[in-house]
Amino acid sequence: MASSFSWDWGPAFPTEGIWKPIGIEAFDKLVIRDITVETTPNQRNNSFWDLTVHIKMESAPNQEFEGIFDIKLDNNVIINKDKLKFKTDGQGYAGVAFIILLRNIKITPWYPNGVADNTQKLYDLNVELSFADSKEVSTQTKKIGFRTIKLIQNPVKPEGLTFYFEVNSKPFFA
Prior knowledge:
It comes from Oppiella nova. It is a single chain. By secondary structure, the chain is mainly β. It has a domain at 31-147: Immunoglobulin-like (Sandwich), CATH 2.60.40.10. The protein is built from no helices and 12 strands. The strands form 4 sheets. A 4-stranded antiparallel β-sheet has the order 4-3-6-7, with no helix packed on it. A 3-stranded antiparallel β-sheet has the order 1-2-5, with no helix packed on it. A 3-stranded antiparallel β-sheet has the order 8-11-12, with no helix packed on it. Strand 11 (164-167) and strand 12 form a beta hairpin. The radius of gyration is 23 Å and the shape is extended.
């Protein structure tokens, strides 16, 4: 018996219409659309972390802007760039990346549940873009964690490999 795309006697109806919150957004300058973050231990000093922040912005195509970035980690200012110039591409997007060495902030590493001291510490990373010639501000906040993860595969006999993970140098099996 054919009945829509459900498995039983009744039909299954796909979602139709508005199903998420809607709104109207207006801006004259740039708006931050996305932030991606990479956290890696510093190669020279393992108690420091390198934070790479990629920021994707949107505005009208082929426009030049001069903006001021303020980046905070749990309300600690980690970068304040005055008058950074950039230009949107033909589709209205611009991007910028910052590589930041965190050395004056004590970082608590993130661990999976049940591993080490069982902390799932997440930090608020806040990126704010403002302009000297305007009161317009664009802000975005993300929750981030600091951790390293490795897949460990050592040879074992007869002809095989171990398979487990290390998070922040602590072994665990998943």
